[in-house]
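re: that chain from earlier
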Amino acid sequence: MKPALMSAEDVRTLTTVSPATLDRWVKSEAIPAPIRIGRVRFWFVEEINQWLTEKAAERQVQ
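^ sequence. v structure.
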């Protein structure tokens, strides 16, 4: 079974952030690292979903 991938646009839509914010998150390692296929960045759907779940849990603790 092949892992599902999300494009940068998909991640931005899901998180409602700008391209610049997504770039900052990648540089600061605040979001799981993308993989590159050619010059295009992709994220594993499972990793992004896990990251969002963790962020939601952090919010509930505060």
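The helical segments are 8-15, 19-27, 45-61.
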